[in-house]
């Protein structure tokens, strides 16, 4: 019976590690955001895997399913796959992220980090929010209000 040389097996394993870092615990999608000067909270919790080409900046992030929540009166919806191009302080060509404005769902196509603000563009208009709002990742279904519920529960448990 033929057994492939150990170096071929090791090379294949190294290739797999290099193309799927999130699965193997090297860097998370949240780590990548910080490398490019973005806070982790622009992505909700639950990214299962991601791909990035550091030469071109093209990326894809994957969730188990779609995710939506409301923050400061805006309902956001993330599809199970988010795509785009990342560079220092800029996310562009975004796909898979929408915001509900009045009755309409609009695609968020670009996010830029400008000083103390993150500017979210839907093409025809944009809105700026303090970067302080994005230091913690929102959770699907309840956004940041999950965190306040957990904090209140923690206070109740430990005050009893």
From TrEMBL:
Keywords: Signal
One protein family per Pfam: DUF538
Signal as UniProt keyword: yes
Cleaved signal peptide residues: 1-25
InterPro entries noted in UniProt: At5g01610-like (IPR036758), DUF538 (IPR007493)
Gene3D superfamilies: At5g01610-like
Tagged with keyword rRNA-binding: no
Protein name as annotated: Uncharacterized protein
Species in which this protein is naturally found: Cuscuta epithymum
